[in-house]
Amino acid sequence: MSRTRSAQPDPRATLRGGLPDRYLTPDDIAELFGVPLETVYQWRKKRTGPPGFRIGKHVRYDPADVYAFVAQQRAEADAA
After folding, report:
1. 10-31: pLDDT as tens digits
2. Which domain holds residue 46?
3. Over the chain, what HEC string results?
């Protein structure tokens, strides 16, 4: 018997079609950018990735902040 994922949509498809209506997890960020989860934690530690915040012991990312981070990265790449 195969397990199915929860009914949550793929965060990459959601961001392309509009901002999701929930805060993103580090796993979502790793999946969005196609990087290992450890990379997401290193970005946070070095303050080089999208800004996150804590809710208790959990890290979350506001989709609007992630979208702004991507826009900034694209603008910097276009300017270079």
Report:
1. 655 555 556 677 899 999 999 9
2. 21-79
3. CCCCCCCCCCHHHHHHHCCCCCCECHHHHHHHHCCCHHHHHHHHHHCCCCCCEEECCEEEECHHHHHHHHHHHHHHHHHC
Phi, psi of 45 (to 5 degrees): -60, -40
**What's the total number of domains in the chain?**
1
Q: How many residues does the chain have?
A: 80
For the chain, list residues with pLDDT below 70.
1-19
The confidence score (pLDDT) of residue 59 equals 97
